[in-house]
Amino acid sequence: MKLPEDLKARSNNSCEMCSATEGLSVYEVPFSPESRRDAEIVACDKCRAQLERKEALDPQHWQCLATSMWSETPVVQVVSWRMLNRLRKEAWAAEQLDMMYLDDELLAWAKASGEHENDDVVELHLDSNGAVLQHGDTVVLTKSLDVKGSTLNAKMGTVVKNIRLVAENTEQIEGKIEGQVIVILTKYVRKQNA
């Protein structure tokens, strides 16, 4: 994905959180006030995955917040505050959080996500064995399933290729069986090794 010129210039063509220069893309910051047009940052793949809770938090990686929290860019300050709160169990993060100041408007924006009240729980799609599922993975059914509203019976051992994750529910994926897209519970699948 090509970065917009204004974001490229502002970010110096690097991740605005950790300064990485590879795997950059635009991350739209959730729960931004409607009046804010500058609600995007440039983030690397690793930062983005952890911001979106698709990967477990790596406290070592987020040591970069000691620098990014002092950014003059309000949206970077907001994301830094949210991440420091998710990592507040780490002594260094609690110290940084104590030093950080946001004006009332930015603090309201930062708190709008509710992340300051949550811990670092990551919401991942896991198969029956606890393996992390990703878009495009291939899985095998571990149980025969009757498909509601259809005469289709998906047999145990059926291979389902190119799955899609259901965004709002970590216990569900979508896959195509016999030409029909169905919702499958993750507890009834096993990720197939490549």
From TrEMBL:
All residue ranges annotated as the PhnA protein N-terminal proteobacterial domain in the record: 6-52
Alphabetized InterPro entries for the sequence: PhnaA_N_proteobac (IPR013991), YjdM_C (IPR013988)
Pfam families, per the entry: YjdM (PF03831)
Superkingdom to which the source organism belongs: Bacteria
Signal peptide per UniProt: none
Name of this chain's protein: PhnA domain-containing protein
Upper taxonomic lineage: Bacteria, Pseudomonadati, Bacteroidota, Chitinophagia, Chitinophagales
